[in-house]
Structure formats: C-alpha cells, structure tokens
Design goal:
heterodimer; A: 241 residues; mainly alpha; 7 helices; B: 57 residues; 88% helix
Chain lengths: 241, 57
C-alpha cells in the first residue's frame, strides 16, 4: 500500500489508468442504460416502475462504498498522516454525498407509486438519511477550523465514528420491520432476483463503481496539483517578500 | 415496440423519467465540474512552471 501512496507515483500510475477507466465507464454506462431501459422486462407486480431500481440500487451501493472508502482513507490519514489518504477522503465525500442524494430522490420517486408514499421513517430510509447527513457533516467539519490540520482530524474522526452506520444500513432490513425487502443480491445462498433483472442491475452497478473510481482519481489529481500550486505560490511570495 | 409506448413506461413515466433525468443531471454536473477543476489546475500549474523556467533563463 505504501508503495502506491507516494503522490508522484500516484500521478504516474493514475495517468496510465485513467483513459482506460474513463472509456470503460462510458461503455458500461451506455450498455447499462440500454439493458435497464429497454432489455430488462417489466416486473409482473411493479410494471415499468421497476426500472427505477437500476438507478436506485447502484446509487445506494455507491453511497455505502464511497463512505467505506472515506472511512478507510480517514483511518489511514489519522494513523500514517499521509497526504494522499487525506486527499482521497476529502475527494470521496462530495461523490458519496451525490450518490446518497440520488439514492434518496430515486427511492422517493419509486416509493410514491409502489408504497403510496414519498417518504416513511422506515429503518433503511432513516439510516440512509443519516448517511447523507454524515457526508454533509464531514464536509462542513473539514472547513470549520482556521487550522486545516485540525479540521481534517476532526472530520476524519467523524468519518470513523459514522462508519457504524454502514452495517446498520446493510442489516436494517433484517433487524427491523421495514418497507424495504430483505437482501436479494448479496446474501447467503446467492441472489434471489431473476437473471433478466439481475444482469442489468450488476452492469449498472459496475458502471457506477467505475464512474466513482474515475471521478475520484481525477479529483485527487486535481487536488494534488492544487497543493503544488499553493506551495509554488508560497515560495514565490516568500522570494518576493 | 412503439416509441410512445416506451416513453409512457406503462403509466409510470412521471416517476421513471425524473429518476433517470435527475441521476443524469447530478452525475453529469459532477463530472463536468470535476473535469473543469482539473483542467484549470493543470493550466495554472503549467503557467507557473512556465514562468519559473522563464526566470531561470
């Protein structure tokens, strides 16, 4: 891990990986959209409204995946104080918040026709809303101190404490009675979804994952360049003064 | 399948299309914002290092 945590090495490696990653994202997104909107059959109970699932579920996966990355990077930043881990955590947060927002909005648009309500305080919806506020809290805390190092530490601690919410989201459907169905993809004994719907879901899930990875890498590169610019700026003003 | 049947989404058009539309808009804006920031940072750095090289000569 440490070998790859060198910023210069990260810039080199990511430069090679990035075009392939971006291309794969575009191809998989296009394929996923065709599968989701055209190829997948309507559900025998939910009709065409089931197509919302192909946005909703991948967004929910990414909301949790991004938070796990955020927490892992925060732990690495706290333990090793590595700048690359700090940057990874900072840049994962807005991406995760966007996916969480999308999960909530698409869920609302699915809940109204299927459950007859835009929102309910059901365990899974409430825990995902908490996740959304954790992201917002993390980003607010990051910039809440005059000393950026203290802001980063406080935000990293919040990210770690908030990680307990991730298993709560995953198992909320087993622990409480909720409107949501029990796990149907990642469960003991294999998925219970029909392949005609599972495949489009997995392709969209992979497309969202690649999109997250691509955007995270570009943002990390941007953040590293911005740091370098600040250093050069400081050096230049130091030389002048 | 006729285009209008497809667009009607079995009567769920007002739920299905906004879900996809909002997702496309949010992720699209995120991608554009990310790229714009990256390009701006790259340009600024090139400018600065260019200036510095100029100083050296």
């Amino acid at each position: 891990m440490h070998r790859f945590a060198n910023p210069a090495r990260f810039m080199r490696l990511s430069q090679t990986v990035l075009p392939w990653l971006a291309a794969a994202t575009v191809v998989l997104l296009a394929l996923g959209l065709v599968l989701a909107l055209v190829v997948a059959p309507p559900d025998y109970q939910q009709g065409e409204s089931v197509r919302i699932m192909f946005v909703h579920v991948p967004a929910a996966w990414m909301a949790m995946c991004a938070y796990t990355s955020l927490a892992a990077a925060s732990a690495a930043a706290l333990i090793w104080r590595h700048p690359l881990a700090e940057i990874a955590a900072e840049e994962a947060a807005p991406l995760g918040a966007t996916f969480t927002g999308l999960c909530l909005v698409s869920g609302s648009l699915w809940g109204q026709p299927m459950w007859g309500t835009w929102w309910a305080w059901d365990a899974r919806m409430t825990s995902v809303l908490v996740l959304f506020f954790l992201y917002l809290g993390y980003m607010a805390l990051l910039h809440a101190f005059d000393d950026p190092t203290r802001g980063r530490r406080a935000a990293a601690i919040l990210a770690l404490v908030g990680f307990v919410n991730v298993p709560i989201i995953k198992f909320s459907v087993d622990w409480w009675n909720t409107l949501h169905q029990p796990a149907s993809v990642l469960r003991m004994g294999g998925p219970t979804i029909d392949p005609s719907i599972l495949w489009p879901l997995l392709v969209m899930g992979l497309a969202f994952t690649l999109l997250f990875a691509t955007l995270l890498i570009v943002r990390m590169r941007a953040a590293l360049i911005e740091r370098k610019i600040r250093v050069l700026d400081a050096a230049a003003s130091g030389a002048l003064g | 399948m006729a285009l209008s049947t497809w667009l009607a989404m079995g009567g769920y058009a007002i739920f299905v299309w906004p879900a996809y539309g909002i997702a496309a808009a949010a992720l699209g804006l995120l991608a554009i914002g990310t790229l714009r920031r990256y390009r701006m940072a790259q340009r600024r750095l090139a400018q600065m290092t260019g200036e510095r090289r100029g100083e050296d000569i």
